Amino acid sequence: MPDYQAPLRDLRFVMDEMLDYPGHYARLPNGDDASPDVVAAILEEGGRFAREVLLPLNQSGDREGCLLEGGEVKAPRGFKAAYAQYVEGGWPSLSAEPEHGGQGLPASLGMALSEMICASNLAWGMYPGLSHGAADALRHHGSDEQRATYLTKLVEGVWTGTMCLTEPHCGTDLGLIKTRAVPTDDSAYTISGTKIFISAGEHDLAENIVHLVLAKLPDAPEGSRGISLFVVPKYLPDVDGNPGERNGVSCGSLEHKMGIHGNATCVMNFDGAKGFLIGPPNKGLACMFTMMNVARIGVGIQGLGLMEASFQNSLAYARDRLQMRALSGPKAADKPADPIIVHPDVRRMLLTQKALAEGGRMLVMYTAQLVDVTEHGEDAAERERAETLLGLLTPIVKAFLTELGFEATNEGVQVFGGHGFIQEWGMEQFVRDARITRLYEGTTGIQALDLLGRKVLMSQGETLKVFTKEIHKFCQAQADNAELKEFVEPLAKLNAEWGELTMSVGMKAMEDREEVGAASVDYLLYSGYVTLAYLWARAAGTAQQALASGESESAFYRAKQDTARFYFQRLLPRTRGHAQMIRAGGASLMAMSAEDFGLGFEI
Amino acid sequence: MPDYQAPLRDLRFVMDEMLDYPGHYARLPNGDDASPDVVAAILEEGGRFAREVLLPLNQSGDREGCLLEGGEVKAPRGFKAAYAQYVEGGWPSLSAEPEHGGQGLPASLGMALSEMICASNLAWGMYPGLSHGAADALRHHGSDEQRATYLTKLVEGVWTGTMCLTEPHCGTDLGLIKTRAVPTDDSAYTISGTKIFISAGEHDLAENIVHLVLAKLPDAPEGSRGISLFVVPKYLPDVDGNPGERNGVSCGSLEHKMGIHGNATCVMNFDGAKGFLIGPPNKGLACMFTMMNVARIGVGIQGLGLMEASFQNSLAYARDRLQMRALSGPKAADKPADPIIVHPDVRRMLLTQKALAEGGRMLVMYTAQLVDVTEHGEDAAERERAETLLGLLTPIVKAFLTELGFEATNEGVQVFGGHGFIQEWGMEQFVRDARITRLYEGTTGIQALDLLGRKVLMSQGETLKVFTKEIHKFCQAQADNAELKEFVEPLAKLNAEWGELTMSVGMKAMEDREEVGAASVDYLLYSGYVTLAYLWARAAGTAQQALASGESESAFYRAKQDTARFYFQRLLPRTRGHAQMIRAGGASLMAMSAEDFGLGFEI
């Protein structure tokens, strides 16, 4: 069975040493309670919960899956008890507002914990995971009464939430939804329709489930301008706020999926269910994006968690498994063969996982600071800047970390050789679980359009400039630092090229809008690699300072520098291909007619 | 359920128009029967068998898996009947020698058919698939008596074969095997030990199973120089050559795997089983490589088949699924949204699958001609040249087509969005099935070492030169062809760079052997992309000629040119990253100590 330990030392490096979280929390109005000691204690306790409670249920949950019987869904054995422990421990409310029962700690802390949950048991993590987005939508767009009714329950974890968007014929294109909401006498609505792919849509972990549902009013305009958001509880709360009458929403069936078997992915039937409008009529899409952005970063963290889990286990295997001698001569002469970690290509795979997981952690915790500031920053200009950067980085966090998360978990399988394909070892589960992260909450293609089309080009590149300026400043500040030259020089070049590529796509797109879609995924991956290069260069700088100041853990800091070097030499060159493909433009994509694609096999 | 049609038109293009198979067969002594009509009829019939018999069992086989009961393994429902039909139709013996009951057709024809089998049902295809390698080993290294006893049965498909190499503690490093072979009075051996990952090790499709087993003699030298090869039948043949007494070999358990559920992957226990030595004592590794090379190309073909199957189904979905409007304006104004094939990024994914599948087919059929010549070529120099090229291309076919096959099947999932993750659609099965191809018969890392270390550098680059010279000649011959310039110019540059990169690694490797392993996988991928570029450039030339000569199917040939253009503009630039990573050398891989890898999470 795979093992997992929360990467506490690395988190301390990222949070305390590199990104100055103590200073960051000190500047936040809700940061008082987040003293270094408290943060350390929470992270350690969270790591223990992940390892001791969630990890042992990960493989069994995958094997058992969920069971639908008589309309009730049973999560795999142990999931319910673990959830009770989670609620009991106060974990769901950690970073929620005190006025709704939360502990008021910064959101970033919850994000650091989220990585541990995803790493130890992704399928389980998705039961509480969706509640955050639902709570956020209610907090921002719900009426006082709705907040009073649902928010505390969601925050405490007594109830869980869902996002009911997708229908059989539409996922990306929500303007096509058919679910209807008809007003009734009592200022409520009757909701009818079918939603699919509803994660944690029905289960036995919590006493009630709060569905947030997109539907159309009878007089709604066509397309995405005619979508409204409703709250539809599984049990209608009674006068005391407790689960009362059963509502007309039920699970029609469970999907059979490639992975995350332990999570109930439901077809949800709304048969005249009672629902309540959230926010203004026909403005549901905006409300939904409140949930969606939270969820997207959450999915990026899933990618990160799976990278780390896979890395830790392939590392253990590579140290243990004896096979062949090093090409340069035996390294463990007393054993029948050398441990495979001596082989450069095995190291390449391990370092790929390590550089991506540690770099991904920097990206997530960098983004988490932006989330904190957008939520609680006291300076308006700082808040606006954080909003801008968060908008830019959200699709990168989501798509880059899940694309690379899939790659990293596959490297984990590859390190195991044939054993990686065998379920017992658990490495292939990471791959199957990771596969969904490239798809849900908007595929990589959709994230790429959001990044290049909406965020970068619609702002005439201004959004991007906020970030490239920051990188430029860093490069300038370190220009005379001889030891960092190997990082700062290529970073500065890439940073300039990023702007040029953006301009060149922007020019082409003015002639032909399709050029945006033609460049978008390569652009997103390029952006991801440059972003991580910036963070790895900073990490190398932090490590340099620590070593210079005579910090005791010199091996740790040297490993950081080595990993940065690996990233720059053996991963960052991928930008060369992406840059060339972006420059190639879309002509070669658009030439063929839809019919001609199949001429090789269609008779 | 996924559909599949054999790509007969494309095969005709590759075989008849591009690679002059009619001329190739006319030059082969065993090519007389392979007239264009016969070839076309066989391919068509094979495509029908794949589609009508194998395809309907692919998803059900995945769901059911195999069953071990009382030592007997039951393949999924329908597999046995399909195999009987396969034997009845004479398919197993198609390209086997007439003296052993074969039909004597060239091996290349069997390889073209093999793609169809892998595309329609990989798990089923592995029951007969392993027999080829076993037969080849017996043909080349068996005694007359062994050939008489086993070969005809294997060729006819009445019995199937296995390759029993891997043991729990060793796969790549076969020098470590523990299985023992003790001579007995009657010139036989008693085989004892445990083998794992034995594909089709036990099943109910054939009346007997012929295991080819690596084991060590009592006085064997240490390591890989002390390995011998044995034939160990499940039932010992009686005096009439029919299955007689049950031998002491049995299936201990079935592996639970990520994919190819329909194939029985067995732990095989040899408890004093009777075995017979093949070839000289302690020379088993050489005999095994006879099987292995056949099997490696076979696995490359598996990658190809899965690409094609995934491509066909994602194409159908992309034409059918309506979602969003094209950025440049509605393309299907009469429908609620445009089919997703209008979107450039969806086209990028489809064209990636298409360019890799069609390019992969060119590579396989190019390699297949080399196989034909090595087996039956009448000119010694030509045969030697074919041997050399085949040695060079085998690891590329194996590793490049499986790495890219995994990517292509994942693109297929991605085109389906969330539906791609749902088992019912069948797209995720292609991914799970494809995952093993990167691992078995030597991982990608092992293939890469074989290519760069054994094939290229051990020959001082001479092996590579045979191929780059051919590419160079092509480029020179086409130098004045203005229409091909967009392909020939970059190809010529890459071809020269390939030599330079090889030289630079070779120089570094003289200082430090680890540089080979540090560069190997990037080198293999680089080599694969250049090889496919050569073939795509040739294909573009063939299409150009056909269009110039006024061939009627102009849409087909233009689509070929468009796909070539896509390959050069949107896939080939990946070589930029690989070249840079090769040049970066191994220092960044070797710096960290095995202990320091885990400092971020180990306490």
Automatic annotation (TrEMBL), chains A, B:
The source's superkingdom equals: Bacteria
Q: Where are the transmembrane segments?
A: none
Residues forming the Acyl-CoA dehydrogenase/oxidase N-terminal domain are 80-157
What Pfam families has UniProt attached to this entry? Acyl-CoA_dh_1, Acyl-CoA_dh_C, Acyl-CoA_dh_M, Acyl-CoA_dh_N
Q: What is its EC number?
A: 1.3.99.41
Q: Which GO molecular function annotation, any one, does this entry have? A: flavin adenine dinucleotide binding
**Cofactors, names only:** FAD
Where is each Acetyl-CoA dehydrogenase-like C-terminal domain found?
A: 467-592
List UniProt keywords, sorted A-Z. FAD, Flavoprotein, Oxidoreductase
Q: Which InterPro entries match?
A: Acyl-CoA_dh-like_C_dom (IPR025878), Acyl-CoA_Oxase/DH_mid-dom (IPR006091), Acyl-CoA_Oxase/DH_mid-dom_sf (IPR046373), AcylCo_DH-like_C (IPR036250), AcylCo_DH/oxidase_C (IPR009075), AcylCoA_DH/ox_N (IPR013786), AcylCoA_DH/ox_N_sf (IPR037069), AcylCoA_DH/oxidase_NM_dom_sf (IPR009100)
What enzyme category does the UniProt record give? oxidoreductase
Acyl-CoA oxidase/dehydrogenase middle domain residues are 163-271
Segments forming domain Acyl-CoA dehydrogenase/oxidase C-terminal: 282-450
Q: Which Gene3D superfamilies match?
A: Acyl-CoA dehydrogenase/oxidase, N-terminal domain, Butyryl-CoA Dehydrogenase, subunit A, domain 2, Butyryl-CoA Dehydrogenase, subunit A, domain 3
Q: Kindly state which reaction or reactions the protein catalyses.
A: 3-(methylsulfanyl)propanoyl-CoA + oxidized [electron-transfer flavoprotein] + H(+) = 3-(methylsulfanyl)acryloyl-CoA + reduced [electron-transfer flavoprotein]
Family per UniProt? Belongs to the acyl-CoA dehydrogenase family.
Q: What is the purpose of this protein?
A: Involved in the assimilation of dimethylsulphoniopropionate (DMSP), an important compound in the fixation of carbon in marine phytoplankton, by mediating the conversion of 3-(methylthio)propanoyl-CoA (MMPA-CoA) to 3-(methylthio)acryloyl-CoA (MTA-CoA).
Task: State the protein's name.
Answer: 3-methylmercaptopropionyl-CoA dehydrogenase
